[in-house]
Amino acid sequence: MNVNRKVLTLDEFTLQQLRQFPTATGELSRLLRDLALAAKRVNVEVNKAGLVDILGDVGSVNVQGEDVKKLDVFANNQFLGVLQHGISCAGVGSEELDEFVVFDDELSNNSKYIVHMDPLDGSGNIDVNVSIGTIFGVYRRVSELGKPCTKEDFLQPGKNQVAAGYVVYGSSTMFVYATRRGVNGFTLDPSIGEFTLSHPEIQCPPTGKFYSVNHGNFFQYNEGVRKYIDGCQKKTKETGGPYTQRYIGSMVADVHRNLIKGGIFMYPGTTDKPNGKLRLLYEANPFAFIVEVAGGLATNGADRILDIQPTELHQRTPLFIGSKNMMIELEEVAKL
Ligand code: AHM
């Protein structure tokens, strides 16, 4: 029989990784499998979004005061459902929910992980068929096993993540995840319904040519950030520009491109919103973990993102993230 040895599914890959740790329990592998299952279900609905009457607002408003789209609700329910019915997750914090969810049953109380997630990021792009994504961060709980998880499990700094990842629903669907050992990307093969290893050992190029920022807010950024952005458009010694501006408005797609090709993504604070728009626990921490494992950097302008001690679930943070040398240039030019 002719076996194609080049094709490695996500499950096969995580099992191979597991074999290298004889004492590992396999809980993280199962958790990743659960997340991939939910991602496949969400992918089916995202692909149908233009065909069925699933577009538009549900009519409610989420905890950040934004309109909730139907697909957001669907994605939230899918991820919550698989995590609750799996055996690896004790509870979930979701961008879509006011409070964290505790899966208070015997199996879940004995699970060692909790998950933070943004089930459908970039939802403003759903109606116009532009890439959207899911983001997740996995933490080992700090509360006592055998009991329901607690708030302190959900308010850990990002450096405590054991894994983080994202799914990009784009021209193809990709599941990318990082552990401290590395970042690997899997592309969904629709013919077999499996994520297969397509981007092994992703390294973020130390420099790149893309900068991603909402230029519409330019005059609301502080002077240092404006100076850096100006430099991105010029050929200067400091920035090595001009760079190419790329901003989709879906953080998953913007950071994914910069992770693969090299670049910098910024969502700075503005005069109206000094902490910017992005959420520390659901968006910034998972990406900071992934990008740092891949060799890049992430800061809020003052501190490393992964060192920030969260004080509330839905806390927002300015975010600068990307290729190492571009981040160093940013800090030098903007004097963050
Ligand atoms: P969402 O919570 O509505 O999905 O918004 C999050 C998105 C990010 O993916 C993206 O980077 C950012 O919002 C874009 O915001 P803006 O339109 O202010 O530039």
Molecular structure report:
With 336 residues, the protein is α+β, with helices and mostly antiparallel strands. The chain has two domains: 10-199, 2-Layer Sandwich (Fructose-1,6-Bisphosphatase, Chain A, domain 1), CATH 3.30.540.10; 210-334, D-Maltodextrin-Binding Protein, domain 2 (3-Layer(aba) Sandwich). The chain has helices at 10-19, 27-48, 70-85, 106-109, 151-154, 223-232, 251-261, 280-293, 324-334, and strands at 57-61, 67-69, 89-94, 101-102, 113-121, 132-140, 161-169, 173-179, 182-189, 194-199, 210-212, 244-245, 263-267, 297-299, 319-322. Strands 4-3-5-6-7-8-9-10 form an eight-stranded mixed sheet, with helices on both faces. Strands 12-11-13-15-14 form a five-stranded mixed sheet, with helices on both faces. Strands 1-2 form a two-stranded antiparallel ribbon. Helix 1 runs antiparallel to helix 2, helix 2 (27-48) packs antiparallel against helix 3 (70-85) and helix 6 (223-232) crosses helix 9 (324-334). The longest helix has 22 residues, at 27-48. The radius of gyration is 20 Å and the shape is globular. The structure holds 2,5-anhydro-1,6-di-O-phosphono-D-mannitol.
